[in-house]
Amino acid sequence: MSPGSRIVRFRVNGDPVEVGVPEHHTLVEALRYALGLTGTKQGCDKGDCGACTVLVDGRPTLSCILPVHEAEDRDVITVEGLARGVEPHPLQDEFDRHGAAQCGFCTPGILCSAAALLDESPAPTREEIREALSGNLCRCTGYTKIFVAVEAAAARLRSAP
Amino acid sequence: MSRGERGDFAVIGQRLRKIDGLAKSTGRAAYTDDLVLPGMLHGKILRSPHPHARIVSIDTSRAEALEGVHGVLTGGELPTPYGIIPWTPDENALAVDRVRYVGDGVAAVAAVDEDTALQALDLIEVEYELLPVVLDPRQALEAKGTYEAGDYIHPPRKEGWNGNVTKMVKLEFGDVDGGLAAADLEVEGEYWFEGTTHAAIEPHCAIGLFEGTGRLTVWSSTQVPHYLHRELARVLRLDPAEVRVIQPPVGGAFGGKSEPFDLEFCVAALARKTGRPVKILYTREEVFYAHRGRHPFDMWYRTGMTRDGRLTGVDARIVLDGGAYASFGLVTTYYSGQLLTAPYDLPAYRFDSTRAYTNKPACGPKRGHGSVQPRFAFEVQLDKLAQLGGFDPMELRRKNVLGSHTRTINELRVTSNGFLECLEAVERASGWKERWRRLPFGRGLGVAGSTYISGTNYPIYPNDMPQSGIQVQIDRSGRVAVFSGGSEIGQGTDSAMAYIAAEEFGVPLEHVRVYRGDTDFTPVDLGAYSSRVTFMLGNACVDACRRLKAQVCSAVAEYWEGDPDAVILRGGRAFDPAEADRSMPIRQAFQLAEARWGTLGATGSYNTPKDVHGSYRGGTIGASPAYSFTAHVAEVEVDPETGVVRVEKIWIAHDCGRALNPVLVEGQMEGSAYMGFGEALMEEQVFKDADHGRAGLHDAPSLLDYRMPTSLDTPDLEAHIVESVDPEGPYGAKEAGEGPLHPSIPAIANAIHDAVGVRVDRLPFSPPRVWRALEEARRAGRLAKPAHPAERVAEGAS
Fold first, then answer.
1. Chain A residues whose beta carbon lies within 8 Å of the beta carbon of residue B34
2. N or C: where does chain A have the smaller number of CB atoms within 10 Å of the terminal CB?
3. Residue B168, phi then psi, degrees to nearest 5
C-alpha cells in the first residue's frame, strides 16, 4: 500500500467491503474504481449535479464530495442495491414504464433521492417530490415524467401488502 | 388530443417501455466512462490560459521524465486540420502554433492514473507570445490588419478578406422593399439572444485502443460515430478500414457531442504512442469550455403587415458570435435565415447573416440549431404587430399560415403540416379565449409557433450514398436482430427501431434485439443531429423489414398454396384472415422461410428526395424531407416590484406526423420546453472581459453557477401530440426532438408582455433586466396590462 493510501471498511448494498484507496479519494471514486459499481455516475465531481447521489445510512448523499474515510462503518446503498434480486424496485419499474429515464445518466442519483423520500413520506405531494429532487439535475426530461413515475411508485408501495 | 388517420397497428402508437429503460434505471447501462480496459492509462489535456497567443515553444521533457507517465503529445504530431464541415477545417487536435481561446488544448499526457497525469501537466512548459484579443463579434468584423500580427483569429480565406469572418450569407426572396413599402403597419426591433450551452449530465469521455496490427478502436460519448470515424482516419492518417468507433449509450448530448473533440484524437494518438489503451474524461469545467452550444445572436428585424393582418415582408440582419472555430458555423449562418419561412406564408423575405470568430469557445449546434434565436425575435415581432393592429395574436398567426403540400418563399418543399391543429390545441387547453388579456395585472399568457426540419436533406460531406442504413436478421428461434448504426443519446432511437421491427414481423417486442453503436458491424447512419433519426433510420428499418417480410410471407404462402399478399404477421402468428385454418406461430413461419430461402437477412436504406430544395446557391441548406410544427402557450407571473418572472405552465402542441410511441414523443416535447424555459429565464454562457477579470474566462463553468432549471424551477409542462401523418415518414412520423423547443422563449416573452405590458427583447429575462423594463414603463406612466383588442377597438370608436 503506497503512502497516502488507506484501507476503509463499510457496507455496500448490505455486503461488507474493504477498499484500499488514496486518502483523498471520495466515496464515488471508491465505488466506481475500487468496487466496480459503475451505476453511480459522476456528472460534475463537485457536488452540483446530484448524479452521484447514494444513500448513506438511509440519507441521500453526494458521494463525489464525501471523503471515502467518512464512509467508514456506514451503510451505503447504490442504485445497484435498490432492486430485490431480479425484481426491480417499484421506482425503477415505474421510471421504465413512464419514460422517466431518457439518457439515464441522472437516473441512478434521482432514484436514490426518490427512494429516501418514499421511505420518509409514503404519499408525497408533487411539491414534496419537487423539493426532494431539487438537488438532482436532469437535462433530458423536463422532470414531468419523473414526477409521474415517483407518484406511481409511491402508490404501488402504499398498496403493497 | 388531435389524431390523424389512426392506422391499424399492433405496436406503433402504443404507450410502450423503452428496450433499454430498465438497464438505465437499474444502473446496468454501461456508458463510456464505465468501461475499463486491461492496462488502461488515463489522459489529461493541458489547456491554454490565454484567449489568443502564439505558441513560441513547448518543453515536455520534465513531464516525460515523471514516473508513471507513458506518453506526451503535442499539436505538431497531429498537423492535419479537421472540422465537422468539410469546407471549414480550422481546428487541430491540439494547437499547433496558436491558441485561440482560454481552454484551447496544447498538449496531452497519458499516465498510470489521473493524479499522475495532472502532475505531469504542471511540468510542461509552454512559452506564449500574447496576441490581441477580440471578444465582441462586431469588433471582430471591424478588425483590420494581418493574421500574423494577431489582428485576425484565422488566416483570411482570400487576400484582403477579414480573417474573423466564418461566413456571410445574404439571400432575398420576393420584393422585400416593395412589400415593406406597401405595409400598413410595420414593426422594427432589435433582439439579443445570449449564448447557452448543452450541459448534458454525462461529461465527454473517450477511450482509445491501438492494436499492433495498425487497427484503432475508439469508444466515445459521441452522437456522430460516422463523422468521428472519418475524421479519426484523416487526422491519425489511418485507412478508414482500420478504424472502428464504438458508441456506448450516451448520457445526453443535445448537439454538444455532434462533432469530433480533442479528447477523441488524443486518446487515439496516445494509445498509438504508448501501446496501451488510454481514457480521457472531461472535467465539468472542460465541458463548459468545449461548448459548441447556442450562438449569441445580435438580431434586427423589420416586419410589415397589411391592416387586415397579412404579412407583406420581412427583413433581417444578424451577427452571430461564433467563438474561436467554425464548428457547424457555415450551416448555422444559413439556418439563421433559412428556417424562418414556415409555418407562416412570407410573401417577401430577406436576411443578411454574418458569423464572426471571437476568442471564446466555439459555438455550434444546440437543440434547434440556428433557428431558435431568430424564432424568438420573429414571434415577438408578430406579437408586437398583433398589438399594433388590434389582433388576437392567435388569430394573426392563423391568418398567415402556410398550408400543407406547398413550397415556402425560399422554395423548401413542405409536405404534411399540422400547425393549425397545434394552435387550436394550445388555445383550447390554456383557456386562451377567456384568459388572454383578462388575467389580473402581473399574470399573462403568450403564444408562439415554429417549424423544424426532420433531418437535413443533404449529408455534411457531399455524397450519393444513403443517409441511413440498417440490417435485420431473423432466424428459426423466432428472434429478430436489428443491427443499427443509430445513435442512442436518450431519445429512444434503439427502441423506435425495435417497435418498427416488432410491428413489421408481428413478434413480441421482447423478441427483438437491437445491436448497435459499432461501426464495425452496423451499417452507416450519419448520426443523431438535425432531428433526422426517426425519419431516416426509421424508413431504412421499415425498408429492411419489408424486404425480409416478403420472403417470410412468400414461404408461408407457398406452404399454404395461397397468395403471399394474404399473409399477415401479427400478434406472434402468421395467418390468412380469410381462411380460419391458415394460422401458425411466427417461429414456424420464420422456419419455413429459412428452409425456403436460406439464412435470412436484409439490409435497408434511406436517402432523401432530391427535388425538395431551393434552386439558388445555398438552397439545399434548410431543405428537409418533412417539417414538424409546434405551438406553445406559456403562462407567467411577473412580480412588478422585483422583476422576477415565474413561468407557471407551458402548453405544448407538436405535430410529429405520427407518434411511434407517445410516451417518448411527450418526453421530447417536455424536455424541449424545459430547455427553452431555461434559456428564457436563467441560462447564460458568458465570458469575462479584461475589465471584469481575465479576458476570455468563462463566467460560470459549473453546474451550480451556470443556472440550469432544477425540479423546483421547472414549470408544469403539458404535452399535446398532433398527428398530421406525413406521406414520406415511417408510418407518417416526423421529428419531435428539437422542434418543440423553439416557441418556449417567445411564448414566455409574449406572456410577460400580456402580464405587465413591457417588452424584454434581450435574453435571458433575468430579474434585473425585467425590473429595468418595468421601471422605465413606471416612470413613463405606462405600466399597465395591455388592453384587449375588443376594448381597444371600442376605445378607438368612441
1. 32, 38
2. C
3. -125, 135
